[in-house]
Amino acid sequence: MVICKKWTLAQKFHGKPTPANFKLVEEEISENINDGEVLCEAVYLTVDPYMRTAEAVNSLGDTMYGEQIAKVTVSKNPKYPVGTIVRLMSGWRSHTLVKDTEKEIRRSAEMSDLPLSLMLGAMGMPGMTAYFGFLEICQPKEGETVLVSGAAGAVGSLVGQIAKIKGCKVIGFAGSDEKCEWLKKDLGFDYVYNYKKVDIDTALNEAAPERSVDCYFDNVGGMFTVKVLNHMKTFGRVSICGSISNYNNTEVPTGPLPFIAILKSQLKVEGFIVLRWYQRWQEGEKAMLQWIKEGKMKYKEHITEGFEKMPEAFMGLFEGSNFGKAIIKV
Ligand SMILES: NC(=O)c1ccc[n+]([C@@H]2O[C@H](COP(=O)([O-])OP(=O)(O)OC[C@H]3O[C@@H](n4cnc5c(N)ncnc54)[C@H](OP(=O)(O)O)[C@@H]3O)[C@@H](O)[C@H]2O)c1
User: Is the shortest distance between the CB of 244 and ligand 1 below 6 Å?
Assistant: First the structure.
């Protein structure tokens, strides 16, 4: 018998997530498993902003939704012997009994000798979000100007680097001076601004004078994005990836609407969910792996140690506490 710990939803979210939203529950899982089954123990788990949204959790008492990298500890399936590393969508839980391995075990990325945790970051969902969400929707061309919000985060930091690889001028906005310094010095962004300190219009008049942003990859939404749209070039492309500044809203936001800017500059604005390209993920993983190996793509992980700290790590996403991809190491 193993004791599985799992984080469940104790209260529906309202506003920013708080400790009261989560409850740690224990469950016993028998090690006496059936043929074809495997028992796995979590090694790395991820917290992501999407977990705040209603779709990620069905009802009270549900285990919080999400992906993890786990190790097989008991096996009655020759395809997955003890010690095999697997990728599961089993949620915030320390142990998982996998009954249908074909259905429940996700294909692992080809990792070479990279840290396994990258399968939750640059070589996983956030990496594919950056790769496909930026390249497919923004269609960047050499010499163009690309703006990224949430630039020091899991997705944003990769988007900026892909834009540099494609020969673009890159402008990033992030929420601390330390994050901005990393973007500029280590990742080679051309202009970086701490959005908490600068006037957005003044910054953009400097970095992209006379409405010269060709592509905008938007992670944050809200008023920030409304302002950016006024600095876009005619026929600019906007990839709406996320809207983290709005996820905790308790009231419908009011303020200037973006439609006139979209109309005047004839912008193409498109939202996406990364699973749109799920059938092509291997293509994205291959490209990311090559860039990482060539030293063209750097990754940063913000590792929180301890399964018990999952809610804390999750809540930190909405405070900017994570610097790079937020990962939990069990
Ligand atoms: N469409 C898709 O399929 C898809 C897939 C993955 C992710 N996403 C979205 O992409 C965005 C980034 O996700 P991620 O996983 O890379 O997270 P992340 O950027 O690693 O972490 C979230 C970051 O958002 C910033 N933030 C928090 N509250 C903010 C606010 N009110 N205004 C502006 N920035 C705020 C913080 O950075 P600062 O310190 O810079 O403020 C924080 O570190 C999220 O909106 C997420 O929902 C979409």
Answer: yes
Domain ranges in the chain are 2-121+300-329, 125-275
pLDDT per position as a tens digit, 3-40: 999 999 999 999 999 999 999 999 999 999 999 999 99
- 163 Cα–ligand 1 center, Å: 18
pLDDT, tens digit (0-9, with 9 covering 90-100), for 106-157: 999 999 899 999 999 999 999 999 999 999 999 999 999 999 999 999 999 9
Are 16 and 311 in contact, with CB atoms under 8 Å apart?
A: no
Q: Whose CA is nearest to atom 44 of ligand 1?
A: 242
Alpha helices in the chain (DSSP H): 101-104, 125-138, 154-165, 177-185, 200-207, 222-229, 259-264, 281-293, 310-317
How many angstroms separate the alpha carbon of residue 235 from the centre of ligand 1? 26
Q: Are 214 and 151 in contact (CB under 8 A)?
A: no
Cα dihedral: 2, 302, 168, 240 (round 10): 60
Q: Is the pLDDT of residue 166 over 70?
A: yes
Specify the pLDDT at position 84.
97
Give the Å distance between the CA of 323 and the centre of ligand 1: 11
Cα dist from 236 to 86, 150, 192, 253, 270, whole Å: 41, 19, 20, 25, 11
Scan for tokens 């060539």, then name that residue. 294
Query: To which CATH superfamily is domain 125-275 assigned?
Result: NAD(P)-binding Rossmann-like Domain (3.40.50.720)
Nearest CA residue ID for atom 5, ligand 1: 129
In CATH, the number for domain 2-121+300-329 is 3.90.180.10
**What mean pLDDT, rounded, does the chain reach?**
97
Kindly give the interhelix angle for 154-165 and 281-293, rounded to the nearest 10 degrees: 70
Residue 142 alpha carbon to ligand 1 centre in Å: 26
